[in-house]
Design brief:
Length: 76
Amino acid sequence: MGVVGGATIGIGLGLAWIELFNTSEFEGYAGMLVFFTFMPLGALVGGLAGATLFGMAAFREQELAIARRRMPYESR
């Protein structure tokens, strides 16, 4: 999900860059800039961020599992 979200944000930032800096659209330059530069960079950053957050969540879950107390077993 991080890769897809990052790629989406990258496309949005690329489109904003084109509008802000009046990038030339000659022979599809603007489209190539967005889809070959901003989208892969956004996907890379989003993937790394998603993996880091998932790893942190998994590590914290393991910490919580160790810290839980078990109920003593009662035999009847």
